[in-house]
Amino acid sequence: MPQVTLSVNGKSHTVEVEGRTLLVELLREKLRLTGTHVGCDTSQCGACVVHIDGQSVKSCTTLAVMCQGASVTTIEGLAHADGTLHPMQEAFREYHALQCGFCTPGMVMSAVDLVAKNPQGLSEQEIREGLEGNLCRCTGYHNIVKAIAAAQDVMHGKRQTIAAAAE
Amino acid sequence: MNVVTPFEGIGASVRRKEDLRFLSGRGQYTDDINRPGQAHAWILRSQHAHARIISIDTAAASAMPGVVAIFTSADLAAIGGIPCGWQIHNKDGTPMAEPKHPVLAEGKVRHVGDPIAVVIAETRAQARDAGEAIQVEFEVLPGISQTTAALAADAPRVHDDVAGNICYDWHIGDKAMVDAAFAQAAHRVVFETTNQRLIPNAMEPRCAVGDYDTTTGEHTLFTTSQNPHVIRLLMGAFVLQIPESKLRVVAPDVGGGFGSKIYHYAEEAIVTWAAARLGRAVKWTADRTEAFMSDAHGRDHVTRAELALDKEGTFLALRVDTHANMGAYLSTFAPCVPTYLYATLLAGVYSTPAIYAEVKAVFTNTVPVDAYRGAGRPEATYLIERLVDVAARQCGFDKIKLRRRNFIPTDAFPYQTPVALQYDSGDYFSTLEQALETADWAGFEARRAEAKLRGRLRGIGISTYLEACGIAPSAVVGSLGARAGLYEVGVIRVHPTGSVTVLTGAHSHGQGHETTFAQLVADKLGVSIANVDIVHGDTAKVPFGMGTYGSRSLAVGGSAMDKAMDKIIAKGKRIAAHLMEAAVEDVEFERGTFRVAGTDKTKSLTEVSLAAYVPHNYPIDEIEPGLEETAFYDPKNFTYPGGCHIAEVEIEIETGRVTLINFTAVDDVGRVINPMIVAGQVQGGVAQGVGQALLEACIYDADGQLLSGSMMDYTMPRADDLAPVSVATHVTLCTHNPLGVKGCGEVGAIGSPPAVINAVVDALRDYGVEHVEMPATAPKIWSIIHGKTV
Questions:
Q1: Which domain holds residue A25?
Q2: Which residue of chain A is at minimal alpha-carbon distance from B291?
């Protein structure tokens, strides 16, 4: 059986996998990092999004063996080592941008990359379009869009802290 | 009563406690659970809509790597079929047809996805590989999928023992009164429509892990359920014959349900049974394509309705004839959805004096249909609010004035409808006014004209509605055929050092109970929510519960908690009276402090709870130590939230594409505990309603082949399909539960579809369009605009 060596949340792992093993299966089953979720089988829902070498990628559509030598960040690795939340995580909580929480890890990871790749700042419509690869069945996206806009301000250095949501 | 609410109590938008684990990947969903030594199950499902099983050859499959066992219905001969939880009777009083719903197909498969065999192997991949090697010989039979077509005399029979595919032929209301009213009516408006089949598609696929302790003989089932106690009861009593004391059911974090995770599913019984049979844990997880053909579907009504009006526009009578698709087998609550959750809502917010509804429920070769967010009330609301708009157009009435004219007056409560339900409170005039103002209804024509300059057809649509939830009074539903009670349980456990654990039979799968229920305790007992833990979802911890659905958790579960807190306060007063050497009738309690009236002698709840567990200075001869109380709350009535929804859409003339521009919701959900969470529930519900109106449809071909088999073909709403949803609330308190709450989980999905379709029809007003069937997709609208089919 093939072996793959990769770094996940800063820690190196060498794992025996089958050729057909998906990255999401490696994360969830071999490494017991169950924060990354599987929500569909047609690569549409985005619950499986992680960062590979700084890019958001759907881990359900990535073979584990393709990640040889890669650096992967999952939702478990997003907060700081001391537990301080990433601004996107803070914003999601402040704006009630999650209900059941199942889409949330993939949504947050996608959103972090979306904002990072657009230093010019995104409008509400652009945020909505940028989320086309992430499905949520609970929130109707209303608060997710607001949370991302609020996180954007902090991630782009315009604010120190997440703006309080209107009550 | 004007009371300043503390920032953690009732009325505060407290940020959720549960978010911390969800945001950092530490949620525990059922597929995250891995039991020592577990094996994996994979289900072989029918690819035919209807077929006899001639033979199942598992020889090659059994020999494949990692295979532990393969089971078919032959191995399950000793266990029962999946029970139905609600028995409807026909017009003639006879009970509905209730064909067997086997755990694994017996002799016949009746829908694409019907489970045939289960493979247990060391890994999921090995189980699937082996499953694909099972050889099944079928005799393919003609199938039937369409609801009304299944009633035709020559339609294929789904169940050999059910003639005409009719599950039941039911009615409600006064036919003679309705016929008489129609005979004299100035206007008679006919409306026919289909409320299309939908797939709930909670983001978390279903999963079940069965385990068995060979030492104690205890079975454990971890499952994606909205109601673990109900699963324990149905599966333990009716399927596997396991007593409650030996069966623990745990629903951990659940990733959305919307009704689809209420039912007892075959896979739960399979893994529980197999774990005991094999002496090791067995885990099954659906993939999404599998979910499409095995999760209960929603809606699927075909209706013809007629409204009779007098010449001024007063509604005289409503006559409804509905065919409802049950699918191939009866799911747990299926029979009650098109009857007691639908036809009883046909008065809506109007004072229509005469109503008569007939409902035929029919079997087809499709996935079983059951409650999906709104469960019967979206179907009723859509019917009424489209019919009112159609009537306004046909008879020449203003659609707002026609509604107001027929609203139940604010002084008419309690209001007895002609279809069994009695509404306790409501103010449809205020929610209408507030929505019209917020949506700037008056300024719409200017927006329509401006849109036209951009090549867009703009339309505005309204829906004024209510629904019935907070289910339900046990005796009432029992008399209507329910085979369960619908009360709720709350245990308040005050610990010696003053923190509180609440055990609730409700089960949050996104609704935020760990926060909102803690707010109730903060408000009443004065304990900070950081010191309140809400425990739910485990039959080993919570005495009983009927679960979370039907917007009942706060109205019924919260009321049970409130009753239990009253008992805590009553006992606490007796202890405090003893500690303060006062008469118990002189002791008052407010948010954490017991006080001798008119003095500054006080004891905190913490001092009282410590005394209760260290009863040295204590009225030990009069009351027992401890400070823990249980209450069961059986509601006196349904609750009736509702309000007014307004949608604005634009249609692109070249493509027919409908875009939602904005949405206004003004809802009366009774007392609001956490405004932010209420808004989130409404926004999420509206998204599903907009999805039904514009995007979603579960499509079968005529024979029962599932064409919309994955998210490639079933259009789930995405962020750029939706627009901001303005949410406001207007409060009229529920008069019959201690919290005055009505529930808010489903109103968004109920009020919105007709508002959107009314807007689409309004946008197309120059094209002579009376009606557009859901979903109003681009090809459909393009054909209307351009006068030809795509």
A1: 3-77
A2: A40
Helix (H, G, I), strand (E, B) or coil at B40: strand
The tally of domains found in chain A comes to: 2
Question: What's A33's domain CATH number?
Answer: 3.10.20.30
> Going from the N-terminus, what domains does chain B have, and what CATH number goes with each?
19-26+487-633 (3.30.365.10), 34-141+203-256+261-292 (3.90.1170.50), 301-471+637-786 (3.30.365.10)
Would the pLDDT of B2 be above 50?
A: no
Residue from B23, B293, B663, B715 to probe the interface with A (highest A Cβ count within 10 Å): B23
Indicate whether A13 and A60 sit together in one domain.
yes
Residue B294 backbone phi and psi in degrees, to 5: -140, -25
Could you report the predicted ipTM of this complex, rounded to two decimals? 0.98
Strand partners of residue A93: none
Q: What's the average model confidence in pLDDT over A72-90?
A: 96
CA distance B678 to chain A (A): 11
The pLDDT of residue B790 is above 80: no
Residue with tokens 């990769």: A6
Nearest C-alpha neighbor of A98 from the set B31, B27, B556? B27
Which amino acid is located at A82 in the chain? D
A50 and A112 together in one domain: no
The pLDDT mean for chain B works out to 97
Cβ–Cβ below 8 Å for B255 and A100: yes
Please judge whether A139 and B680 are an interchain contact, meaning their C-beta atoms are less than 8 angstroms apart: yes
State whether B204 and A39 contact (CB < 8 Å). Answer: yes
pLDDT on residue B6: 57
Answer whether B680 sits within 8 Å of A92, measured CB to CB: no
CA distance B224 to B593: 41
DSSP letters along B597-641, please? TTSS-EEEHHHHHHHHHSTTSS-TTTS-S--EEEEEE--SS-B--
In sequence order, the β-bridge partners of residue B137 are: B55
Chain B residue at shortest CA distance from A135: B718
- Amino acid, res. B11: G
pLDDT tens profile B466-525: 999 999 999 999 999 999 999 999 999 999 999 999 999 999 999 999 999 999 999 999
Residues A64 and A101 in one domain: no
Banded pLDDT at A166 (limits 50, 70, 90): confident
% of chain A surpassing 70 pLDDT: 99
| Domain's final residue, options A51, A77, A103 | A77
Question: Which residues of chain B lie closer than 8 angstroms to A19, CB-CB?
Answer: none
> Cβ A137–B22 below 8 Å, yes or no?
no
- Return all residues near B81 (Cβ < 8 A) that are at least 6 apart: B100, B101, B102, B103, B239
Residue A164 is predicted with a pLDDT of 96
Question: Does residue B4 carry a pLDDT above 60?
Answer: no
Q: Do B31 and A38 touch (CB under 8 A)?
A: yes
